[in-house]
Design a protein that fits this description.
Elements lengths: L2 E5 L2 E8 L4 E5 L10 H6 L5 E5 L16 H14 L5 E6 L1 H12 L4 E7 L7 H16 L3 H8 L6 H5 L2 H11 L6 H11 L15 E6 L7 H10 L4 E5 L6 H4 L1 H18 L2
Parallel strand pairs: 3-4, 3-5, 5-6, 6-7, 7-8
Antiparallel strand pairs: 1-2, 2-4
Helix pairs in contact: 2-3, 4-5, 4-8
InterPro entries: AB_hydrolase_1, AB_hydrolase_fold, AB_hydrolase_sf
Keywords: Hydrolase
Protein name: Alpha/beta hydrolase
């Protein structure tokens, strides 16, 4: 069971499981704690994992005014401090990877290591156009189901669409009671679309693993690699055949990769 913790002027929904070194999981667009279920279930025997609903997502309210990556990074820092966690392995995907980058830049002492899945330093024209497409799609789609079916075409592999995995995900989202409004989705996108960390990534000191889906059509491997090349000593791996969210499609493989990385960090990053 989760609880709200106070972070600045925000009540942030948090769930925590397991025992061991601390891990903070940061989701992407519209993704709640539940998006990390395969990690909460699969890694809790080795780590104490904390996941949370970002501002405007799930059970965390959206304050008035514009949303910024800096605010969301500070929210993540407030979650750690509220729980008495002095340092954690931080894993973020998609928009959550950008928040994770900013967390490591703004609050370096809190970040033991970084795992950045499906990330980028700044959106190139292709990705920016795709994200703006999602921004208007959420407004004009004839139903929530239609939006999800269109959005997920570029998020999950054809394999996941054809074997019923995506259909199951859609039913879970439709049944979830804490809906995100169109305005909240668009404000989150607005915070990310022109965000640029490319000139500051060299300041990140935390051991970093950058992961790309080899078939990701959005934050493509070239964008992920550009992040890895800018962070000193970062490791870069491509999961061949996978799309934007391999931590959900092939969780055992993903969990093994990050577990191996975290074990190296705990043993003393070379």
């Amino acid at each position: 069971m989760g609880e709200h913790v106070r972070g600045g002027d925000l009540d942030i929904w948090v769930e925590q499981v397991g025992e061991g070194p601390d891990v903070l999981l940061i989701g992407g667009l519209g993704d709640t704690v539940e998006s990390w279920q395969f990690q909460l279930d699969g890694l809790a025997d080795r780590y104490r994992l904390t996941a949370f609903d970002s501002r405007g997502v799930g059970r965390t309210a959206m304050p008035s005014g514009p949303v910024s990556v800096e605010q969301m990074a500070d929210d993540a820092a407030e979650v750690l401090r509220a729980l008495g966690i002095t340092s954690a392995h931080v894993a973020g995907f998609s928009g959550g990877s950008i928040v994770s980058q900013e967390l490591a830049l703004r609050h370096p002492a809190l970040v033991r290591s970084l795992v950045l899945q499906s990330t980028w330093p700044v959106m190139d024209p292709y990705m920016r156009t795709w994200v703006l497409f999602v921004r208007w799609l959420v407004e004009v789609a004839p139903s929530e189901r239609a939006f999800l079916e269109g959005f997920y075409l570029d998020i999950y592999t054809p394999r996941a669409h054809n074997d019923g995995t995506v259909a199951e995900f859609i039913e879970e989202v439709l049944a979830f009671p804490h809906k995100q409004t169109t305005d909240e989705v668009q404000r989150y996108i607005d915070a990310l679309v022109d965000y640029d960390t490319s000139e500051r990534l060299g300041d990140i000191k935390a051991p970093t693993l950058v992961l790309a889906g080899g078939s990701d059509a959005t934050s493509r491997p070239t964008l992920c690699q550009a992040v890895a090349e800018r962070i000193p000593h970062a490791r870069f791996e491509v999961l061949d055949g996978e799309a934007h969210q391999p931590f959900q499609e092939v969780p055992d493989r993903w969990n093994a990769l990050v577990d191996s990385f975290w074990r190296v960090v705990e043993a003393g990053w070379p």
